[in-house]
Specification:
By secondary structure, this protein is mainly beta. The protein has one domain: Jelly Rolls, CATH 2.60.120. The chain has 2 helices and 28 strands. It has helices spanning about 125-130, 275-290; strands at about 1-5, 10-15, 20-25, 25-30, 35-40, 50-60, 70-75, 80-85, 90-95, 100, 105-110, 115-120, 130-140, 150-155, 160-165, 170-175, 175-180, 180, 190-200, 205, 210-220, 220-225, 225-230, 235, 245, 250-260, 265-270, 270-275. The strands form 6 sheets. The chain has an 8-stranded antiparallel sheet, with no helix packed on it. The longest helix has 12 residues, at about 275-290. About 45% of the residues are buried. This is Pirin family protein.
Length: about 300
């Protein structure tokens, strides 16, 4: 097997095989005291299907007395999908929702014309310390829905289909439909999201059910059609390719994301996504003027960035 060595953070590297268009390395960002690797958007790849944002959170170990603190901030035109491998996050929003997400569950918040939320560590977890590990994803809403009413749904881990494809090959259908199973998560834009786990030496052929796809290497070294990719990269797949993904010497976890192409270009600024930049300017004004509804049990909020 050949091997793809990691490029510098924020850069892309060649795919190394016919099935992979490019591999994007994450750029470091600090989110409320948590270092994340941002894989999307990227200058040469703004979206994969409806997925316009992909943050790899952790794994990070918080000492007792410390924790995640993201004060209230606004969104428009997107759905945030939070999925954890370890730890817990308390979500509060301007709809009155207070929900703790734990590993294997999904929080899906639909922003529409505007919603605000916070993400923090629960007091008991802060007191004892905790390892936090997961992903947060943004999906652009369709042009017909981006100014609709905001909403929130929580889906417990037991509600998501969990499949054993073969010996040593398991997956959970986080969003969309694959291998005859459908997730109850109402993700927009025909989104497909799979959490795939491979034991050492085991492999799975990636389906081409949707036109645009990418593989996020969560942990372990994954061989894609014989080319080994280290953890932390996002391998953007070519249309129609059905690569074989294999765990080499240790277990591997990858996430497949994808879907149909967006129904037009999107502008992104801070936490706002819109088909019309004027909607972003309006959201800026509303947040600066305090026109978004308040978040339950919160007294602070993030200021509007300059620009």
């Amino acid at each position: 097997m050949s091997r793809i060595d990691g490029a510098r953070a924020g850069e892309a590297e060649p795919g190394g095989c016919a099935a992979v268009e490019m591999v994007i390395r994450g750029r470091a960002r600090d989110i409320g005291g948590l270092n994340v690797a941002r894989l999307l958007p990227y200058a040469k790849r703004r979206a994969v299907g409806p997925f316009v944002f992909f943050d790899r959170m952790g794994p990070v170990s918080f000492d007792p007395g410390t924790g995640l603190d993201v004060p209230p901030h606004p969104h428009i035109g997107l759905a945030t999908l939070t999925y954890l491998f370890a730890g817990a996050i308390v979500h509060r929003d301007s709809l009155g929702t207070v929900m703790t997400i734990r590993p294997g569950a999904v929080n899906l918040m639909t922003a529409g014309h505007g919603v605000a939320h916070s993400e923090r560590m629960a007091p008991e977890d802060r007191a004892s310390g905790m390892v936090l590990d997961g992903v947060q994803i943004w999906l652009a809403q369709s042009q017909g829905d981006e100014q609709g009413a905001p909403g929130f749904s929580h889906h417990a881990a037991d509600d998501l289909p969990e499949l054993r494809i073969a010996a040593g090959v398991g997956l959970r259908v986080v969003a969309g439909e694959a291998f005859g199973a459908r997730s109850p998560v109402p993700a927009p834009g025909g989104a497909l999201c799979l959490d795939i786990m491979l034991d050492a030496g085991c492999a799975i052929e990636i389906p081409d059910d949707v036109p645009e796809r990418a593989l996020a290497i969560i942990s372990g070294d994954a061989a894609i059609d014989g080319v080994v990719h280290e953890a932390g990269g996002l391998a953007v797949l070519r249309a129609g390719a059905r690569p074989l993904v294999q765990a080499t010497e240790a277990p591997v976890r990858v996430m497949l994301i994808g879907g149909p192409p967006l129904d037009g270009p999107r502008a992104m600024w801070w936490n706002f996504v819109a088909s019309d930049p004027a909607l972003i300017e309006d959201a800026k004004r509303r947040w600066a003027d305090g026109d978004f509804p308040p978040v339950a049990e919160e007294t602070s909020r993030l200021p509007l960035p300059p620009g």
